[in-house]
Amino acid sequence: MAKRITEAEIARQYDFMDEAAAINADLAAGGRRRAFIRTFGCQQNEADSEILAGMVSRMGYDLCDGVAGADLVLINTCAVREHAESRALSLTGRVKAEKKKNPDLIIGLCGCMVTQSHISEDIKKKFTYVDILFGTSELWRFPEILLERLKTGERVIEPGIGSRGIVAEGLPQIRADKYRVWINVMYGCNNFCSYCVVPYVRGRERSRLREDVLRELEEAVKAGARDITLLGQNVNSYGRGLYDDYGFADLLRDAAKIEGDFKLRFMTSHPKDLTPALIAELGSNPKLARALHLPLQSGSDRILKRMNRGYTRDTYLSLVKAVREVVPDIALTTDIIVGFPGETEEDFSETLDILRLARFDNIYSFIYSKRRGTKAADMPQIPYPVKSERYTRLTDLQAEIELEFNRGFEGKILEVLVEGKSKTDDTRLTGRTDRGKAVHFEGPDCIIGSTAHVRIVRSETYALYGELIPSD
Ligand code: SAH
Ligand code: SF4
User: Fold this and answer.
1) pLDDT of 235-260, one tens digit each?
2) From 12, 134, 354, 410, which residue has the greatest number of CB atoms within 10 Å?
3) Residue 362 CA, ligand 2 centroid: distance in Å
4) Domains of the chain, with CATH numbers?
5) Ligand 2: which atom is nearest the Cα of residue 308?
6) Nearest-CA residue for atom 5 of ligand 2
7) How far is the CA of 233 from the centre of ligand 1 (A)?
8) pTM reported for the whole predicted model
9) How many whole angstroms from 196 Cα to the centroid of ligand 1?
């Protein structure tokens, strides 16, 4: 069951923010203090960090982009793979050194990793320099937690309950990007794929009210958003348990009625719940980008069953076919896990086979990581060198496919949304096509945030290079 936080409870958090701001103003002799927020993991965490940023700003901190000189460091952690957990802990260790220079520095850990009780217990005992810790179900109470720390100087450890399904509206937010924005439609997951920790740390599926989603969308468009991703672990479940007769396809239809020049995307869409209504919507909704992220995970029926995914390779391939019938040039992306417990060479070759058949625009590939408390953690594991060798073969094959794919764009004129200066070469701008391809080209800064036409002159595996076509 979703627990919707009342307006009165949110108003109390605003009071806590104002009280914290007054304390911080005193400590900073009327100026502002500095906070650094580091985010690991998925877009859901990025979206949460935008709320954390909104809250810290209201509490008297300016955001800074490093640990040095910060008065508050918040590490928003991820639990999906071990690697993300080790990186968060190693950053925490580095922040400890900073605390030696500035004993007043407040160190906070939050997010999925610390929502697991074995981790929060460990941090409580061994990482005594961590001042505040709060789990995903407590994020909306961050002002209260930080204020307590500021007032008492005591540690505040509130891992919360991972399965508690909170929906909180009306918290402040500072978006990381003006043009590309995330908007949550639902939270949590009920699918319990056997490898995945998300249902344990993000709780049961629950949806935001449609009027809240649509209001946020309208405000974002007014503020200049051009590329909007609707977020949820399983967006196709939107509205379940909340409305009898209103689902994700309905929400997309209502979203498209909002006036303005913007594109909509969504993630993630689980193959077992990709309905004909949603496929039809992809073909008819003028605001939807021609893009779909449809996580496959494995091409082997045997492994899909052990993963508890609820579809077969054939049903997956028929979905791809149905989607391409409706939108022939759709940009299709996927997630793949290699080295799931019990994966044989034959199972793995079936995954490679689907890559050749489906020809994805892009794949997000992961080496299976054992997660405590999940079903797959009790299955016989595959040695790391085998997993890693398969990973290399998988990414090599996809690189070949993508290069071939990108060659097909040479000489073509593509429409892109100009996002800003290229991250690797500031003499160039970077734009993104509605298929999600990055295109680099020379052009004036004044076109950032608008759409432009670019003739592609060169392609590489992961990027396209072109020349701007002047608009008249
Ligand atoms: N709800 C989304 C995925 C969330 S996690 C969905 O169902 O598609 C994002 C991706 O991380 C997953 O699609 C999966 O490919 C990967 N992943 C999740 N748990 C993992 C694990 N234990 N080891 C390796 N990869 C994992
Ligand atoms: Fe994890 Fe599966 Fe839920 Fe995605 S659908 S979050 S992979 S349990």
Assistant:
1) 999 999 999 999 999 999 999 999 99
2) 134
3) 20
4) 3-166 (3.40.50.12160), 177-289 (3.30.750.210), 301-407 (3.30.750.200), 413-469 (2.40.50.140)
5) 2
6) 191
7) 10
8) 0.93
9) 6
Q: Dump pLDDT digits (tens) for 291-318.
A: 999 999 999 999 999 999 999 999 999 9
Tell me, what's the pLDDT at 434?
A: 79
For residue 211, what pLDDT band results from cuts at 50, 70 and 90? Answer: very high
Residue 369: CB within 6 Å of ligand 1?
yes
